[in-house]
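Narrative of accomplishments. A recurring question from our advisory board has been how the design workflow behaves on a single, concrete structure rather than in aggregate. To address it, we present the structure tokens for one chain from the evaluation set, followed by the sequence designed for it. No filtering or post-editing was applied between the two.
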């Protein structure tokens, strides 16, 4: 065997296999495994210190965006990492530091970390232990690639085939997510901000992969990101066409791979993803469906048809449900109950966004399969089924749990429902108001881990730091192993909320110092000596200007200005008047959730804009579905949508944009969706007299005091999101 890690794994497996029939031999291998664990290079005995150090690194990274960290800070982190005997653990920690610099758009500093700390460690490991070197190279490959792509790919090419795919997978995932390996990332829609350079890099990396499932998975994310209308760096039409050409060539060269699945399943659904880029005509889609129906393996045929149903463009929407029904019927022919259960779960998940009654029917069939098997491997599928049922309809989840045939299965399902209920309550309520917060810390920690994944994916808004004090207080009474997810979420929440705010530096500096001091304290307890505690520095605050001109490319500055205005001026209500407000402008509700979640929002827009966007008259459903698909897993703030327009043209009599709250208001020079992206625009504060005048004019329409405009009757549609 190559090294200690494999030997420990083998010792544990042998112990398990021999435990019943050959107890003395089992005890022998158990003792051998324990001896191997004491090898300092494997670092099996320092989880508390390493966890505290990971928290310190996370807090340290909160200073990167404002360049507020010092050489002493980095020296403290380096000293803490050097206390760890295991070189591979040091590699992983320095990888974390480097990638957090990349995340903060400080690539030069990330390169310094790689050259000064990572590469020397890898050189030593390569000479000492090949097994540890290949693991260290694989885990550090995203940081190495960001520092120097060409030399990294040369190193990766020296790895065994399976390890090479893992390494390439980690590199691609970081390009998509901008989150270090090991940090959760939860985005059901699989869409990421992606520029053209990154898209090209990913194509190159996929051409080096062997695993067909990984290639398809990344092609799907790549296409979804390329066509995502809210991508911060959108691809041009020409770039999309070139990307489609590169992916078409990639699919032809890489799929199918006879080492894995010999039929064309992954090639078909990969081609379907490429078709989304080029908006192929109906015959091309019919050809792909025909190819999917010809796949010999029925289990794989179900999967391919289901993916095709999901991928079909909107002008073929009527074909989605029949195709899902066809795949559903095929599941009856799958011989393995475990495979059948997995496919039903996949089908129900895809159908949930297309036809909820059909998804419920698939869930019922999955429940019937569960009742026919005692296979322990069904447990994770059962958990996903409960989560899916809860997302579709909480009552359906309760019905599913009640129908299971053993007390233990029912208990686990009901526990999962309680987890989902608790998660929803934390997502959509102020946490300090929740009486049950401390009644089940395990559930709180599990939810905190999930929320960290959603925060990393930008699917939820940050919370005011003070609202997490009760979480931290509860976590401080638990072991670090249990409390780690809560501390991680609290630190990351503070970083996301405050790292670019001028007055956030004080708290982030204190947070960094406290985290480093805690790490040193853990080390001192272990080694019976104390470590230094550092002092914090306080920056000064700048007053907010009464107006700001937002240039193209300065969206972040504009959002910070609006966030500060909401935090300091929004009181009870916020009226957004914008005759060109559409579903793509719903991103503003994310800002409101973060800065002023208690205000009641009213959006006044025109019927003409909704018609131009092709929305159905069911505005409540259209807006809510767009919000959930493109922006957030949280409930939006309390929002009323007022769609008003003249009977003939649908235009709103108001032709300006403004935001109004109690005794304050601002004038918006462009739509929220294009702010800082398309040309320049001014945001300016309204005078007291202008606030009164604009509020009266807005109330004329919100209260239906005016019912005509230039001889045309007005139509009014009010709905609540």
């Amino acid at each position: 065997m190559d090294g200690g890690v494999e030997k420990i794994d083998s010792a544990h497996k042998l112990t398990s296999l021999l435990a019943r029939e050959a107890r003395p031999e089992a005890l022998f291998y158990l003792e051998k495994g324990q001896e191997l664990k004491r090898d300092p290079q494997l670092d099996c005995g320092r989880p508390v210190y390493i966890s505290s150090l990971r928290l310190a690194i996370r807090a340290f990274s909160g200073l990167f965006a404002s360049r507020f960290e010092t050489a002493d800070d980095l020296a403290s982190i380096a000293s803490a990492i050097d206390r760890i005997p295991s070189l591979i653990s040091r590699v992983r920690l320095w990888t974390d530091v480097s990638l957090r610099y990349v995340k903060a758009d400080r690539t030069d500093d990330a390169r310094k970390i790689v050259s000064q700390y990572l590469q020397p460690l890898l050189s030593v490991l390569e000479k000492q232990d090949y097994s540890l070197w290949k693991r260290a190279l694989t885990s550090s490959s995203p940081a190495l690639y960001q520092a120097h792509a060409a030399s990294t790919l040369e190193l990766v090419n020296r790895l065994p085939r399976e390890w090479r795919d893992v390494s390439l997978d980690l590199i691609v995932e970081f390009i998509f997510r901008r989150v270090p390996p090991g940090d959760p990332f939860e985005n059901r829609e699989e869409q990421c901000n992606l520029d053209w350079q990154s898209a090209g890099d990913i194509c190159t990396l996929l051409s080096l992969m062997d695993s067909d499932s990984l290639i398809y998975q990344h092609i799907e994310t790549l296409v979804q990101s390329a066509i995502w209308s809210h991508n911060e760096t959108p691809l041009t039409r020409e770039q999309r066409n070139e990307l489609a050409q590169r992916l078409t060539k990639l699919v032809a060269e890489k799929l199918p791979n006879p080492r894995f699945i010999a039929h064309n399943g992954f090639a078909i659904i990969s081609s379907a993803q490429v078709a989304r880029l080029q908006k192929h005509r109906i015959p091309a889609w019919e050809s792909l469906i025909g190819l999917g129906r010809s796949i010999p393996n029925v289990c794989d045929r179900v999967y391919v048809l289901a993916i095709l149903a999901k991928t079909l463009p909107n002008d073929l929407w009527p074909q989605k449900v029949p195709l899902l029904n066809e795949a559903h019927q095929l599941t009856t022919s799958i011989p393995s109950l475990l495979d059948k259960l997995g496919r039903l779960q996949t089908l129900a998940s895809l159908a949930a966004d297309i036809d909820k009654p059909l998804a419920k029917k698939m869930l019922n069939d999955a429940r019937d399969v569960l009742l026919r098997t005692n296979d322990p491997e069904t447990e994770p599928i059962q958990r996903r089924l409960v989560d899916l049922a809860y997302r579709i309809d909480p009552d359906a989840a309760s019905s599913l749990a009640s129908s299971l045939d053993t007390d233990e299965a029912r208990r686990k399902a009901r526990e999962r429902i309680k987890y989902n209920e608790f998660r929803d309550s934390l997502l959509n309520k102020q946490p300090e108001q929740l009486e049950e917060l401390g009644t089940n810390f395990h559930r709180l920690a599990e939810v905190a881990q999930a929320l960290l994944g959603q925060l990393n994916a930008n699917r939820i808004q940050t919370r005011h730091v003070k609202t997490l004090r009760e979480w931290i207080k509860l976590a401080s009474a638990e072991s670090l192993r249990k409390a780690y997810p809560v501390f991680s979420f609290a630190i990351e929440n503070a970083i996301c909320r405050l790292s670019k705010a001028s007055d956030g530096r004080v708290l982030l500096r204190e947070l960094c110092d406290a985290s480093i001091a805690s790490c040193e304290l853990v080390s001192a307890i272990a080694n019976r000596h104390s470590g230094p505690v550092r002092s914090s520095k306080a920056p000064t605050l700048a007053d907010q200007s009464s107006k700001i001109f937002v240039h193209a490319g300065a969206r972040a500055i504009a959002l910070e200005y609006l966030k500060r205005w909401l935090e300091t001026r929004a009181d009870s209500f916020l009226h957004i008047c914008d005759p060109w407000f559409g579903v793509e402008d719903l991103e503003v509700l994310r800002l409101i959730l973060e800065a002023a979640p208690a205000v009641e929002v009213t959006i006044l827009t025109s019927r003409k804009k909704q018609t131009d966007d092709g929305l159905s008259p069911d505005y409540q459903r259209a807006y809510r579905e767009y919000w959930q698909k493109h922006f957030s897993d949280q409930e939006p703030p309390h929002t009323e949508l007022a769609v008003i327009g003249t009977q003939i043209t649908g235009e709103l009599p108001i032709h300006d944009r403004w935001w109004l709250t109690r005794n304050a208001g601002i004038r918006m020079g462009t739509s929220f969706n294009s702010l800082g992206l398309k040309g320049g625009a001014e945001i300016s504060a309204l005078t007291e007299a202008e606030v009164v005048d604009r509020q009266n004019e807005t109330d004329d329409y919100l209260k239906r005091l005016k019912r005509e405009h230039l001889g045309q009757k007005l139509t009014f549609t009010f709905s609540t999101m």
